[in-house]
Amino acid sequence: MLLVINGSPKPHGNLQRMLEKIAQDSGQGYELVNLAKLKISPCLGCVKCAEKQRCIQPDDMAPLYDKIEAADALIVGGVIYFGHPNAFTHTFLERLFPLRHLHPSTIGKLAAAVCVGGDEAEAGVREISYHLSSYFNYNVVGSVFFNSATPPCFICGYGTTCQYGGPARWMTPDEFANFTEITPEMSQKFEDHPEVVKACETLSQGLREAIANLAR
Ligand SMILES: Cc1cc2nc3c(=O)[nH]c(=O)nc-3n(C[C@H](O)[C@H](O)[C@H](O)COP(=O)(O)O)c2cc1C
Fold this sequence. Notes:
Blueprint: E1 2-6, H1 14-25, E2 30-34, H2 49-52, H3 62-70, E3 73-81, E4 84-85, H4 87-94, E5 110-117, H5 121-135, E6 139-147, H6 166-170, H7 173-177, H8 194-215
Parallel strand pairs: 1-2, 1-3, 3-5, 5-6
Antiparallel strand pairs: 3-4
Helix pairs in contact: 1-8
The structure holds flavin mononucleotide.
Residues 8, 10, 13-15, 79-83, 116-120, 148, 150-152 line the site of flavin mononucleotide.
């Protein structure tokens, strides 16, 4: 069983669709957890989790610990907001702390990282992978990232006129003066990028093989 964590608050955004493809193609049963639908507070740093390897905060993270421990593999997906995996994703990663005390339950367990960003997704997927492998000793079997080149300014309604948004910043003054319309096809989909689709399929296969090896 895969436990698939979706840190994007956008329902059916690129990240969720990538996660679903990876999980489905792996041939494993899976549960998708949408963090934006849950109430999960940041780590309080009280370290009271050391004794029982569970957090004292009675929020929606509480039922996830057993699932994380029971899963054959944990897939963590995040989106980039302001240069880093967004707060839903980071808060989830922080709250894994109870699992790394006296008897860490994540050592050698399988994981994967997925990240979507406008143009900084590669750094984001490295951050998620590093968090899982370095702090929690997960065996990160693979990762996938997708740069959608789609800033929030394409959906806010003011992208063609706002002087402070992405288009005004990355276009030349002439390009921005001629940028009068934002059309749906400007919002990029990972499905239209064969190299990203292939990377998802490679990750699915890696997960399938690693899980099969667990049973040997
Ligand atoms: C508040 C906000 C800040 C963002 N900051 C960045 C950023 O710093 N770097 C980046 O590459 N993308 C940034 N993005 C773009 C998102 O990562 C991008 O919209 C992503 O494609 C969303 O994926 P989704 O469709 O799966 O939700 C930002 C988006 C929002 C809403």
